[in-house]
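Task 17 of the worksheet. Students: predict the tertiary structure of the chain below and write it out as structure tokens. Keep your answer in the requested format; marks are given for formatting as well as content.
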Amino acid sequence: MKIENKNEALKLEFFKALYQCAENAYAPKLEAFERAMKQYKGSTEIDGSEESAITVRNITYEIVESQVSSDIPSPKADATSYSEKRGRNATSIERLCRSIRQRLPFDEMNDMDERYTYIYGGSVWYVDWDNESEYMGEVGGVRVECISPCDFIPQPSIYNIEDMEYCFLKFVTTKSELTRRYGIPEENTVLADFEYEYDGEADASDTVKTVTCFYRDEDGEIGRFIFSGDLILSDLPRYYMRKKRVCRECGEEEALCRCKNGKTESCDVEYEHIVRSHDSAGEPCTIDIPYYVPRIFPIVIRKNTSAEKQLFGQSDCDYIRPEQQAINKIESRILQKLLRAGITPIVPEDASISLNNSVFGQVIKMKPGESVAQYGKVDTTPNISQDIAEAERLYDHAKRVIGISDAFQGVDTGAYAESGYAKQLRINQASGRLQSKKKMKHAAYARIDKIIFSLHLAFADEPRRLSYRDAYGRIHESEFSRYDFIELDIAKGRYFYDDAYLFSVDLNGGNEYQREALWQRNLENLKAGTLGNPTEPATLLRYWQCQERAHYPYARENVEYFTDCNSGTEVRTFGKTDLT
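Model answer:
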């Protein structure tokens, strides 16, 4: 996208017009998002009718919630061309991404991500570098957020984030944040776009709406422009390039400038000086290498299931909306029938009926000589069995549309007795139609890991300290250093950062099965002898290490116990072991 050298006012108007155009084109999608969320929350609206349902059986909520998974995929990286060094680097990348999973609130973000995906058809992940972050002496770190698709405005008619020239993110912040983070004078904050409008008698709002635009310039570099109302908060044309402040007159860095006129400007820094070795005299040998500059948007789109010419995937709410609407009508009809129903008494014409406050509500006084047979009743209770059957049929239809069975929802039909492991296998088979959704989740996490790696390659000057557990359960210290990825292009005679790595997820590293099933499988492996002789301490140690990885209660204590046994701290004789 061509960004001409405009003054601030013209540049602001340019991006505001661009944002307004994209938002107008995105308006039908935002309306669909709003309709889907209302349906998920149990809206009483009936399409094509001004009347609303008087009751709702929220099958949408039930179906969406039954698909929510707490599984967070484990990272996996592979070098495009293998060497021993690249193999070590790939392992270092995996440990880096895994540590970030543990450090950031991925459990909470995954919980939102799951619901956004099934309700809206997709979710948005924002992965960027935060220079203000500090952790154990490490300056800077990644910032990861899961954002609602309602707060993301894409370029119109482009259905792949990598093909876009620009896109927008909407955030809500405070006036104090504008002053603290962007250096806006407090008196200028009145020009911001406030979230709420107040009349003259009310207090001023403190919440402000900001818009962040990421765009590609003519060279393919990523730029960032942030504004709020009539305020420019940040303007970084080459966002991922290293910056430094230099004097406008002498061109020296701000710290080395002797002009002392205070007039500085920001300029890009393309090369860094790295000490690679020392000569025979002990003097450092340095090389000049270009800083690594990411050329991808810090945005990842997770799709539910793919749809033709759609940035996001297919919304489950849209596909089961006809069944939800029909069930709401039927349930409303059932309730109306029951409300009209009743038992009407039959009494003689001259019967005397009086009301009182007793539990019976009314008393019939019989005259002398009258018979109880003269009295009766008319039962107008309707037959709603067909309505109930139709509502259940529509509910089953909605589940089949999504690919959900009773077994997947954990509903016990009681048709026959089966073991827990057999039931788990049946659930896995029933969820086969949902595999594409899981694949889309894995693809999104792989792209998140790729961005995390790129940002560390560009900005992580200090080595990142990591820890990992080996196959024997021992914890080791490790580190990620971007300088380990420096390679020499012999043909061109220059150094560069090697980013040729393929990202996916480790299917063996996540909690793909229920923990109880893993515990049972580990025990079966021990009994079968696949881990070794079950009577030997080394085999039992391996078994409890497997159980520890599956989060078996008190497995850690058993690992420590058998570790001491194998190291000779305690000598015991193991006879026949009862494994039942």
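Marker's comment: Residues 515-567 form one domain. The mean pLDDT is 84.
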